[in-house]
Amino acid sequence: MTNFATLTRMRIQLTLRNKMFLFFSVIMPFGFFFLYAGVFARGIPYLVQYFLGPVIALTVMGSFWGLSAALVTFREQGILRRFHVTPVSPSDMLASSVVANFVLTLPTVLIEFLFARTIFHVTHFGDLVSTFVLITIGTVSFASMGLVVASVTNTMQETQVINQLIWFPLIFLSGATIPLANLPLVAKRVGLFLPATYLVTGLQSAIFASYAPWSVDVLLALCSLAVWALLTFFLSAQLFRWEPESKIPRRAKLLAAATAIPFLLLGVWENKTNRTISQAQAMFDSLNAPSKSAPPAGSQK
Amino acid sequence: MANSILQVENLVKRYGDVEAVRGVSFSVEEGEVFGLLGPNGAGKTSTVEILEGLRTLDGGRVSVCGLDPQRDSVALKHEIGAALQSTSLPDKLRVIEALRLFASFYKRGRKPEELLKRFGLEEKRNTFYNQLSGGQKQRLALAMALVNDPKVLFFDEPTAGLDPQVRREIYDIIEELKRDKKTIVMTTHYIEEAERLCDRVAIVDHGKVIALGTPRDLKAHSGGTTRIEVRLSKPETDGALKNLEGAVDARELDGTYVIHSRRPPQTIVSLVKHLEAEGNELVSLEIASPSLEDVFIEMTGRRLRD
User: Fold this and answer.
1) By three-state DSSP, how is residue B25 classified?
2) Mean pLDDT throughout A179-205?
3) A246 touches chain B (CB under 8 A)
4) How many CA atoms, within 13 angstroms, populate the side-chain half-sphere of residue A5?
5) Which of A14, A81, A88 faces B90 most closely, judged by CB atoms?
6) Could you tell me if residue A294 is inside a domain?
7) Domains of chain B (ranges plus CATH)?
8) Does B101 contact A82 at a Cβ distance shorter than 8 Å?
9) What proportions of chain A, in percent to the nearest 5, are helix, strand and coil?
10) Structural domain count of chain A
11) How many contacts does A have with B, using Cβ atoms within 8 A?
12) pLDDT tens for residues A207-243?
């Protein structure tokens, strides 16, 4: 077996034995699920279907908590040093944690779909291919962002502070908690600079509006998240430090900030065209449309 | 020298303005147990970690198994095994899983089960790392250093922080490796450890090698004198103690007078007489047979342990 494969197995084993994991990967996502499906959607199937996008986006985005915490702990406790005297490479270490995270996130998402079907009687789940690809790329990209956070912080405490600072805008300005259509215009405009907005809208378009992977909305989310995932993963490998006492290079914070570039550019363009905002609005408006089970006519291509 | 398995020439390592290693040179032969003995902060760990390819060097040349630890880092890592200082494993990793995981990183290797047996860890096979005692963790660390059946082993302070009984267990393990003709480079600040385990010792202080040789040669070189340590009720001048019968050297180290003597009984008799005449009193007296500690005191005017 390759280093990557055995490390991935170790990560999965360790994560399953970790109580923090139970909270972030099981209790929190299912908590959100029942809050959204039971309270916000009042258990009404087509409303549950509408909220599945945001719920799954939250599950996917949660990846960055666990990944940043695990990497910082490994470094802080001198665990990474031990791997440093073996032929293992930084990308083996990082890629294995990203893949392990994906393997562990997938069942949670599947169970959310299963609950939606059995408990809330949702019968349509939109375009499953779009959904699966978005979940995959979303998990990888947010996990990589966690690795970048770990590379510009030294202690668990610092990591948690940064994580909180990132988490709140991500969940409140992206449509993951409050639908984008309900946000004030300023908040919408800021939201357009966040990767989370495209993940939420993309997933909602796939699940609620059945958009195919090659439709503009899904494709845009896929491409932007993929570019971002590559960039963040590449940077996390560049900034990787084995030793607890090795200093964060001065350029590291600058480079970490560079991960914002793809969504800065996309945000500028989106703010001009208002494409994502109107898509979110269209899906939201369709909730009040007379035909209850039909997805929005919207701008489906 | 030319076919030494490990060579260090004029090694220099800086951390900011601090020069931690200042021109260290030595070489290690195949099958030898080589010790770096010195106080904390002497530059031992920096030296070893450069040899392991964990740190970059700022000057000089090193070669391990004919490889440059910087350039041929991955190739080197297949050839060496290490028990590092201040390292750890994930809390919830079981002993056998740790051995299997690390064994999977190498082309060749030993069977994890065999290592478990050899290091007395069979009973702890399925125990989580965080439930192991200090001694068990250290035995696992040594076992893990052997998973790839390495050509050179590095043990950085293998017994630091362990109680005496556990320390002896670790000594037994290292002595067994020695019988297997393993090449071992170890650091320590325990004199007994260096004397008992090492074929040759480099005494390191402030980033420099201040003495190098077999423990026996080093001790012989320092005169092979017996150390007498006394505490007195009143201060005394070093000069007066130097003139005691049989004494070759006397100095004060943190309130204790350390006298080196060729003829200890005579020295003690004349010490007692001298104190009586001065109206001074003996608070305590200890006699130690010649050790590497004496070499260190002689070279630096300080004690090795702090």
Assistant:
1) strand
2) 92
3) no
4) 3
5) A14
6) no
7) 6-219 (3.40.50.300), 225-289 (3.30.70.100)
8) no
9) 75, 0, 25
10) 1
11) 60
12) 999 999 999 889 999 999 999 999 999 999 999 999 9
